[in-house]
Structure formats: structure tokens, C-alpha cells
Structures
1.
Amino acid sequence: MKGVFLTLEGLDGSGKSTQARLLARFLKARGLRVRLTHEPGGGIGEVRTLLAQDLSPEAEYLLLSADRAEHVRKAILPALEEGAWVVSDRYLDSSLAYQGFGRGLPLSWLKEVAERATLGLKPRLTFLLDLPPEEALRRLEGRAKDRFEEEGLAFFRRVREGYLALARSEPERFVVLDATRSLEAVQGEIQARLRALLP
Ligand code: TMP
């Protein structure tokens, strides 16, 4: 594989999407080929509409996995094979954190499905924008919320703790960033962490 796969993870309101855009711009400015993408909807766009219904956690995860299977095969792997740097705003860790730690589905089942859905593809680095759930919910006030964002504090706490547990279990892949800081400070740390990988 010639390209480099990077992901951004974190609670809603953590600033992931902005950081992903800034990161893509930084890499492009260095003359690198970049593919900025996101989940859910990176593989099957309509999945976002399907996920808005009241679904069982299992159905929710299988829809997210169907989207991810297409995302990996049709977008991420082809871009990596062409030598691009792929920046994905959310990937499998979102499912482990939200559907696993948040909704209580067993991680063993999630990982078994994911192994096949993702063809075993793992990010080279995952930037976790860590934020206290109280702050995440405060930032979402006044915005139109989706089904996940409606869940409230207890759910957000489990998701955050889940992300931190995932980061502890794979310290060589995760970079945990304090997302309460300014956009510039967080982006500066992301770029600093990437310098060793840049050509
Ligand atoms: P977004 O706001 O980052 O586009 O994501 C939409 C919501 O989907 C967000 O609240 C997190 C949730 N989500 C999961 O619960 N599991 C997943 O695997 C993914 C990719 C997203």
C-alpha cells in the first residue's frame, strides 16, 4: 500500500470535521495527494437517512458496517493504492465507542463483523479529540441534533470512556488530543505528530 490512512475520532462537537479539513489542507500544501472522506455515508450516502429511524443497536451497527464495507472497497483502498493520504472523519473506532461502549453491544461481535467489512484495514494513526461530555453537549446546544446527539450525558460519558479505553489498548496507533484547546493548538499538535511520516 503506497498511501497513508489517517482517522479522526471523538464526540460530536469535538471539532473533528474542522480538524480533518485543516489537516487535508496542510497535506495538500505539501504537494501530497489527499482524499478527505467521512463516515457515516462514505460508502452508501443514503445510510444517513436510514440511521435517523428508531433502530435496534444491532440493525444500526449492521447498517454502519454495510456503509463501511463500501467505503473501504470503493473509496479508501483505491485511494491508498494510488498513493494518496486518506483522512477519514470517523471510522471503525466510532462504532466500537458508540455501538459498543455507548449502546452496549459486545465488542467481540463488533470486531468479528468489522474484520470482514473492513478487510482488516486499520489506520496508521488515529487522532482522538478528547472532550469532557459536558463540554461536548454544551457545544451542541442550539444546533439541530441527530439521534446520537439526543442521547444525553450518560451515553456521551460511556462513549468518551470507551474511546479512552480503545486508545489505551493501542497506544502506538492513537494520539489523544485535548480538544478543549483552541483549533490552532489542536491542529498544531496533529501536524507535529505527522512530521515523522511526511516524505
Ligand atoms: P457525524 O456527526 O460525525 O457525521 O456522525 C453522525 C453520528 O453517527 C455521530 O453522532 C456518531 C454516529 N456514529 C456512530 O454511532 N457509529 C459509527 O460507526 C459512526 C461512523 C458514526
Note: The chain has eight helices and five strands.
2.
Amino acid sequence: MSPDHCSTDGGTEQLVEAQPETALDTARHQLVRAASQIDVDQNIVERLTHPRAVHEVTIPLRRDDGTVEVYQGYRVQHDNVRGPYKGGLRYHPHVSREESIGLAMWMTWKCAVVDLPFGGAKGGVNVDPKDLSDDETERLTRRFTNEIRNVIGPMTDIPAPDMGTSAQTMAWIMDTYSVQEAETSPGVVTGKPTSIGGSRGREEAPGRSVAIIGREALDYYERPIEETTVAVQGFGSVGANAARLLDDWGATVVAVSDVNGAAYDPDGLDTWAIPTHDVEPEAVTKHATEVLSNEELLELDVDLLIPAAVGNVITEANVSDVEANLIVEGANGPISFAADAILTDRGIPVVPDIIANAGGVTVSYFEWLQDINRRAWTLEEVQDELEEVMLTAWEAVRREREAHEVTWREAAYILALTRIAEAHESRGLWP
Ligand code: NAD
């Protein structure tokens, strides 16, 4: 897996940098909005607007040329009322305290929507991994692990890969932690290689959950999957897995794209014949007979549109050109707030990221269970359990949507907040 590749509980949120609001603004805005729609103790809402802890460390790295550079590292723990903190670690020059807080809050909601016994966390190092050799990345990772060792652990806070980190990064963290604890602790991180306790089916999980939710949403709107057309922006981990599953289930995938543009065929593409991002990066247009721009893909008159590349691709500037009947968010935050409101006015339903791509953190939870029990599941077990978790979450969101007459996004946030608030009420405030 390349350092650029993300395989993450919560995803990489490249979008956040491009958004006018910070991740923290967005997360607080969403919390306040959900809180205003249900009867919830305002003291709990106030508690949830703040992280429980922000761990900020400095990480000295001896470069290959002998010089020492110092980087800033963060681990933000937002809320653990329902279970250990869970969320990715990213290596990116824009990693900051504030961004990590916002992303940690999103993880709290995401885990609650799919009813996992986890809270939300996020963190990382403000480094460009492309500037580091493999040896430097390993040294940085081991030192960072040491700096946050007292606040992570299989029962306290469980990191995962995110933007700029990979299964190999998780293996180094697991090894460093295990050596210092003098016992093998696979459950301290998820997204590991399967040779040391990683789960089968983890890599494809976010795309699989996007496909499952897409299928259920089509069914809800009474569109038989065999008669639907689908366009997918981004043919990476999330987009390719989602596109191929929907293709296998009978949908006609008319367009998929990468950063260079889209392959388009109104009769349906053979999604298995197009190499994914990790096999041959940015190769989609090389395998196309007809090429569209990414902007044109978003404007296709399809039954289902899945933006699964980066954030903030549907904004006030292009939302009036969107012709899809239904949108399922594969990427994190692909639709701006303003555009989301316009889509609602136009009657185009949007199923939000916090349920659709939650398959990643769900299979991370399965990985953690397997690590704790020291028993690996088969791929079939992972897929069956994921299906069950996603269908249960979908039904729960659907019930909230109908009960409160709100959008899918509002329903997902209401469900998450209700579960978190109930847990806070039960536990109370100590002292
Ligand atoms: P990836 O790196 O595997 O693939 C990204 C794809 O998007 C590539 O095909 C790339 O060419 C394309 N792309 C990049 N910039 C683009 C642009 N400006 N316009 C169009 N296409 C562009 O990434 P991924 O893991 O599939 O993640 C995609 C999104 O899903 C991100 O928002 C990420 O945060 C989110 N997500 C990922 C996971 C995960 O575990 N992989 C989990 C949850 C959410």
C-alpha cells in the first residue's frame, strides 16, 4: 500500500482542507443542528462540543543525512462514553490540533450510527510522508508511538490507518507498543496486515458498505437494481469496491473516474477490467473508450451518484447541474452545506458518509474482536457480519427519518446523538 493510500476507520477527509469551514466548525454545526431536533440534555450537548483530551507531542526524527527535524504530533480523544476511543492517524502537512478535534468528533458520530461500542478519536503528524524514506517513516512512527503510548491501548484508544499511513504504519505501532508493554498486543491498532492480526475484508469494507447502503436506498425508492444506472467518482479503495459490487449485483455502472477524468459508457462499463488506484494509479481514462471530465460525471442523469474521491466536490457552484435521482456519499463530506440544502430543496435524497462508508470502522471493530479473542474470522464471516451491521443501521436511520420527517443526514446525526446522550445520562457526571 502506498503512503498516499488511505484505508481508514473514518477516512481521510482530504475535503476538509478545501472547505470554507474548518472540520471543527462543521462538526460543531452538525451537533447543534441534531440537538435542536430532539429532546436532549443541553449539558450533554455542551460536553460533546469539547474533546475529552488533546494530546500534543513533539517528535524528533533523525533524517537519513544525520540532521534532526522535529514534527508536531496529535492524538485527540473526543468521547468514550460508549467504549474505547477509535479513529485514524494521518501523516499530512495540514494535520493540526483543530482539524484533529473536528475529525475526532465525526468518529464519535460514525461509531454511534453503526452502534459500535467505540467512541471517537483522531490524530496524526504534520509531516509530508512523500518527503520521508521508508526508514525515516519507520523511525518517526516508532517515536510517535512512544510519545502517545500512555494514552493508547487495546482498551483505551485504538488508532487505525488514515491519509498518508498504511497497514505497515500500523504494524510498526503495534510492534513498538508490544515491545514496550512486554506482550504482543495486536488490539492496540486496526488496519494491520493479516499476518499480525489484521482482518480479512478490512480493505474492501468501506466500499462494500457504500454498495450495501446504495442497494438499500435504491430499494427504498423502489428502483430495481437491475434497472439502475450508477456513476462513481473516484476509483480508489472506496469507489472501486462500491462500483464493482453494484456491478455484480446487476446495476449498470455507466461512469467511474480518477483524478484525470472519467471512463463513460451508457451501456455499462466492465468495472473489473479497469485497474484500481492501488494496482495502477490514475489509469481509468487509459482504459476508456469515451472520456468525460469529473465535472461532467457529477452532472450525469443517473439513478445513483456516488462521490467517492475527495471532499467538497458538489458545491453551490455546480449543484444546480446535478441530475442524479439519489446520492450516496462514499467520500467524507463530498457535498458542501449550501449544496446539501439545495439538493434537499430539489428533492434529491442524499445518504450521508457517516453511515454509508462506516464499513471501514465496522470491520476495524471486527478486527479488534478477533485480536482480543485470538481467533481469525473467515472472509465470509466478516462479510455476513458487516451486512448485518449495515442493514441494522440503515433500518435505524430510516426509522429516525420517518419519525422526525428529516433528511437522511439529519436522521443519522439524530440517531448518533440519541445513543451517545443516552449513554451519558446512564453513566452520569462524576463527581
Ligand atoms: P484512494 O486514494 O484509494 O482513491 C481515491 C480515488 O479518487 C483515486 O482514484 C483518485 O485518482 C481519485 N481522485 C483523487 N482526487 C480526485 C479529484 N479531485 N477528482 C476526482 N477523483 C479524484 O482513496 P479512498 O481510500 O478510496 O478514499 C476516498 C474517500 O473515501 C476519501 O474521502 C476518504 O476519506 C473516504 N474514506 C475512505 C475510507 C477507507 O478506509 N479507504 C473509509 C472511509 C472514508
Note: Confidence is low (pLDDT under 50) at residues 1-7, 12-19.
